[in-house]
Structure formats: C-alpha cells, structure tokens
Amino acid sequence: MASRQNAPSFHFRGAPILVEGLVPLAYQKVLEGAVVRVALTGPDKNGPDVLNVQTVPSGQSATLVRFSVPEDTTAGGYTGEIRIGETAFPVSVEIEARPHLQMSPSRFTFMAAPGAQITTAMTALNSGNVPVQISEAGGFGLFDVQGFDRAIGETFRADEKGATSEAARPVDRIFSLVAQEHGGLVRVQFRDGAGTIKPGEFRTLNALVRMPDGIKPGHAYSGMWPVANLRIAVRVEVVERTGSKEVQ
Q1: Nearest to 199 by CA among 12, 18, 44, 48
Q2: Rg value, the chain, Cα
Q3: CA angle 213, 214, 215 (to 5 degrees)
Q4: Residue 240 or residue 180, greater confidence
Q5: What span, in angstroms and rounded, lies between the C-alpha atoms of 125 and 191?
Q6: Distance (Å, rounded) from C-alpha 227 to C-alpha 3?
Q7: Residue 202: is it exposed, middle or buried by C-beta count within 10 angstroms (0-12/13-18/19+)?
Q8: pLDDT by residue (tens digit) across 194-227?
Q9: How many Å apart are CA 149 and CA 209, to the nearest integer?
Q10: String of DSSP letters for 116-168
Q11: Is the CB of residue 141 less than 8 Å from the CB of residue 186?
Q12: Angle of CA points 110, 113, 117, to nearest 5°
C-alpha cells in the first residue's frame, strides 16, 4: 500500500484533452508509467478513474506530468492522488471549460435570389464539457468572391489612366472598391432547436435564412456563419428572382 505520510499536495490544471502540472521531484525519482487517480464525482461515476500519465523532465529538480480525462468531464475542481514509487501524493485538479459544438453539414452552398428566404436543417452535437447556447436569431455578412480581384484590377487600370490626386491613392481606391463588394447582411432565425445544448446532447435545428437584397444575380458570395464556437462557411450562388421568396 502506498504511503501518504508527509506527502506534499500537487496541483494540475487544463482542458480535458491536456491537463498538466509540475511535480517538485527530480525526473530520476519519478517512475515512468506512474498512475494518477482522479476522483470524478457525478451520477455516472462509481469511483475514481485511473489515468495513465506522461512524464517529462523539467530542469534538475522538477518533472512535468501530463494526462487527459474524458472530453465530457464537467469543468470544475477535483481531487485525487498521484502514485510515484511507494508514495501516494494528493493532487487537486482544475478542469477548464471546453466549449465544443459540432455541426453537420459543416458548410453550406445556397442557390438563391436577392431577398430570398431559405429553410435549412442541420444537426448539432455538444462534444464539449460545458453547455452551449445557440441564439434564436443572428446574422453574418457576404462578400463577393471576385470582389478583391476586381478592386485590384480597377485600381491598376485607374493608375494607367494617370490618377494622381491624394484622394485617388491606390490604397484608398482599393479600400473604397472592396467596400462596394460587400453584399449585405444575411439574417438567420432558428425556428426549432435554439437554446441551451447540454454536454453530450444531440439536436436537430431548423433555420430560416434570409438573403440580403443587395446581392447581384450572376455573382457568387461567401461568408462565415457564427454558431456558438463555430464559424460555418457559406457560399451563395445568386440567381434571378422568380416567384415566391421562400424556398426549401
């Protein structure tokens, strides 16, 4: 049985994927393959988990100890012990919050007219260790995918024509032309599924996506749709407006 007499307490901290702390013992005294016991409390825990650790030398008198815990381990403080040789050292472990939402599909391409309203479905999984909040309404900007190249080209053509005024400096013209390539704001409303998603929860969401009126038929636009910790890539191929604004 391991001894804990006069054993100092060690402290560890990190996200579930990597928890680490310094042990003030020379590496030569730390047995490789040492075992860390962390008492994880909760309705699904019947006792302490036994976790294998990685030990790394850190100077002449300390050792860096690393380990991981299950990804859905709730953020907060835990206690346990690390056994090194015949001695058991008490430890305190602070598991940091790790928000992590997964979404499928992970990117969208829409064929839409200016002002069109599109309904789309997606599935979400909270694979982090803290609840994730999905707002009922949001939005993101669109930018013409050819906009920057077009701005550069028009600036060079203006230079060839001899534009020399202070207001017509190349950098000023580029910024002005790039700003004109902004297609407007896409507005999003979740009809179903918004709210708090608990760790480990799987949910279906249905969204109404309204395109801005300023996008131009025949052009393509791109944007990044923010949902919790995600930035979902969106591409919009713009078509002529016909019939009803709402499509599936």
Answers
A1: 44
A2: 28
A3: 100
A4: 240
A5: 18
A6: 50
A7: exposed
A8: 999 999 999 999 999 999 999 999 999 989 999 9
A9: 28
A10: -EEEEEEEEEE-SSS-EEE-SEEEEEEEETTHHHHHHHHHHHHHHTT--SGGG
A11: yes
A12: 70
Q: Other C-beta atoms within 10 Å of 150: how many?
A: 14
C-alpha span between 99 and 75 (Å, rounded):
10
Contact 191, 208 (CB under 8 A): yes
Type of residue at 146: Q
Q: Tell me which residue of 1, 25, 2, 22 sits closest to 11, measured CA to CA.
A: 22
pTM of the entire predicted model: 0.70
Q: What is the dihedral of CA 113, 116, 117, 120, to 10 degrees?
A: 0
Round to whole Å and give the CA distance between 220 and 109: 10
Tell me the domains of the chain and their CATH numbers. Answer: 10-95 (2.60.40), 101-146+181-247 (2.60.40.10)
